[in-house]
């Protein structure tokens, strides 16, 4: 006999609050343990074998969604919340989801069963794919609103995840060249942001394109990430050395900075900080080490090329990438570059096109505000954190209204705020043998990047706090009137 549920289908009816907001009190220990029982409608036990099979299908769906959320860029808390909401909506009880960087797991009870279900999946590959992440968000939103039966949800999950098929080594030409071309535009926009001309932007595009092409080719042949990114960063240094004898100093360093910024693991670092701040320390440490490894690889590749050039008398100049100039100088072509930079980052992360406009606006706003803060004499760390909080708050507000993840908006929005000038100075110091200065510069770069991540996380937490307080006030008012 089939297992029935009394979960009503209310198509077109949205829940009063998003599923992540609903799950946070439970995940953060704000609810008593005795309330951890059935979160959805009770299942009717029409047969022991059918109940066991039904519970296994629910657990499999929850695990697949958790794996997709985590592997495509969501925070650990988001992935845990998605598994919890899915499992409890379809009738499992005492659900205990858990994630690390490399795996997701779930323990839960099917109705009438004393032995808990256990399910786990290993995450073998991580990728930034905000389009798929948004589709998974929408699916979990529909599940939490009880708009889908279990079979419908499993079919929808299969359609979403099967649609994301990486281009094979011998696949379509555009499938192979998409990421390199998009990375080239990221580098071109970054070059303009950091003082380069149109010709400099062209060289930067070539550097970013070649680096991403090499990285993708090595990845398709199973080369570990460290070596891939070390090789991918070398074209930027090589092109900078090639034009160092004829191009002005700003053009040379803009090529280096632009070619490197497109390779830095910004999303991974932001997610690592968010995971650590929300108590998922193991996942946070794993992501942090992953980002640190890529960061070290990029530094290694550039320093090796610049060091070889220095041996042959082709040293690159060391001057500030963003010089002391009038605001008009910063808010002319660099502002256009910030828009191109943000949109290119969004495109490379497979952000839906409808989000490109808001991402560009957030990137431009963040860049303009950061320039104003710099002109007013704000500390780089404080100013960066404040600007990131503003950009993050706006991105979370838009995402809240759309019932989506904020990452597709926030990550491109903070991209123009990355510390390119400090990064270039540190790389140049390391290449010329001034190790102490170079290491100190890298620590400063890491501190500014940390300020970006903390600012973004702070804006999201403030929004969640405001919503919880307003919800508590509304509930108290309803009880008082009752």
Structure description:
The chain contains 19 helices and five strands. With 482 residues, the chain is mainly alpha-helical. The chain has two domains: 4-163, no CATH class; 175-467, no CATH class. A hairpin with a 7-residue loop joins strand 4 (103-109) and strand 5. It starts with a strand and ends with a helix. Residues 1-16, 38-48, 166-171 and 319-326 have low confidence and may be disordered.
Structure, briefly:
Helix content is 67%, strand content 5%. The chain is mostly helical and 482 residues long. The chain has 2 domains: 4-163, no CATH class; 175-467, no CATH class.
| Estimated share of beta-strand residues | under 5%
Helix content: 55-70%
Query: What's the gyration radius in Å?
Result: 24 Å
Please tell me what the overall shape is. Answer: elongated
CA distance, first residue to last residue: 44 Å
Mean pLDDT: 77
How many helices? The count is 19
Largest sheet: 3 strands, antiparallel
Please describe the topology of this protein:
Blueprint: E1 4-5, H1 19-27, E2 43-44, H2 48-71, H3 76-89, E3 93-99, E4 103-109, E5 117-122, H4 130-144, H5 150-163, H6 173-193, H7 198-220, H8 225-232, H9 234-243, H10 249-261, H11 266-277, H12 281-311, H13 327-330, H14 333-348, H15 356-375, H16 380-402, H17 407-414, H18 420-431, H19 435-481
Antiparallel strand pairs: 1-2, 3-4, 4-5
List its traits.
482 residues, mainly alpha, 2 domains, 3-stranded antiparallel sheet, two-stranded antiparallel sheet, 5 strands, 5% strand, elongated
């Amino acid at each position: 006999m089939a297992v029935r549920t009394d979960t009503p289908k209310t198509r077109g009816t949205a829940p009063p609050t998003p599923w992540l907001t609903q799950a946070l009190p439970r995940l953060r220990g704000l609810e008593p343990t005795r309330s951890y029982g059935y979160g959805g409608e009770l299942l009717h036990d029409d047969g022991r074998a059918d109940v066991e099979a039904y519970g296994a299908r629910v657990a499999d769906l929850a695990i697949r969604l958790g794996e997709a959320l985590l592997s495509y860029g969501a925070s650990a808390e988001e992935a845990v919340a998605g598994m919890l909401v899915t499992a409890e909506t379809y009738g499992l009880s005492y659900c205990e989801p858990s994630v690390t960087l490399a795996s997701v797991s779930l323990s839960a009870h099917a109705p009438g069963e004393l032995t808990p279900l256990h399910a786990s999946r290993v995450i073998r590959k991580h990728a930034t794919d905000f389009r798929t992440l948004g589709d998974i968000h929408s699916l979990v939103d529909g599940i939490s609103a009880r708009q889908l039966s279990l079979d419908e949800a499993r079919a929808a999950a299969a359609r979403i995840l099967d649609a994301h098929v990486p281009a094979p080594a011998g696949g379509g030409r555009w499938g192979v060249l998409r990421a390199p071309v998009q990375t080239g535009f990221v580098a071109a926009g970054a070059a303009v942001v950091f003082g380069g001309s149109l010709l400099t932007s062209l060289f930067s595009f070539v550097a970013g394109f070649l680096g991403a092409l090499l990285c993708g080719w090595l990845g398709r042949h199973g080369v570990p990430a460290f070596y891939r990114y070390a090789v991918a960063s070398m074209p930027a240094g090589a092109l900078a050395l090639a034009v160092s004898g004829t191009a002005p100093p700003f053009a040379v360093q803009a090529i280096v900075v632009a070619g490197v910024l497109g390779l830095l693991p910004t999303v991974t670092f932001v997610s690592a900080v968010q995971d650590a701040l929300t108590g998922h320390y193991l996942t946070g440490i794993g992501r942090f080490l992953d980002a640190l490894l890529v960061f070290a690889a990029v530094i290694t590749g550039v320093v090796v090329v610049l060091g070889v050039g220095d041996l042959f008398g082709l040293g690159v100049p060391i001057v500030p990438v963003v010089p002391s100039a009038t605001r008009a100088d910063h808010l002319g072509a660099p502002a256009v570059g910030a828009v191109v930079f943000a949109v290119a980052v969004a495109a490379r992360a497979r952000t839906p096109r409808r989000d490109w406009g808001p991402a560009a606006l957030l990137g431009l706003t963040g860049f303009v505000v950061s320039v104003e803060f710099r002109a007013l004499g704000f500390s780089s760390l404080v100013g960066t954190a404040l600007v990131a909080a503003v950009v993050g708050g706006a991105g979370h507000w838009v995402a809240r209204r759309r019932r989506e993840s904020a990452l597709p908006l926030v990550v491109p929005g903070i991209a123009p705020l990355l510390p390119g000038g400090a990064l270039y100075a540190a790389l140049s110091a390391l290449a010329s043998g001034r190790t102490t200065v170079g290491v100190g510069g890298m620590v400063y770069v890491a501190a500014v990047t940390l300020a970006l991540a903390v600012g973004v996380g702070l804006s999201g937490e403030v929004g969640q706090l405001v919503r919880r307080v307003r919800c508590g006030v509304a509930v108290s008012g309803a009880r008082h009137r009752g």
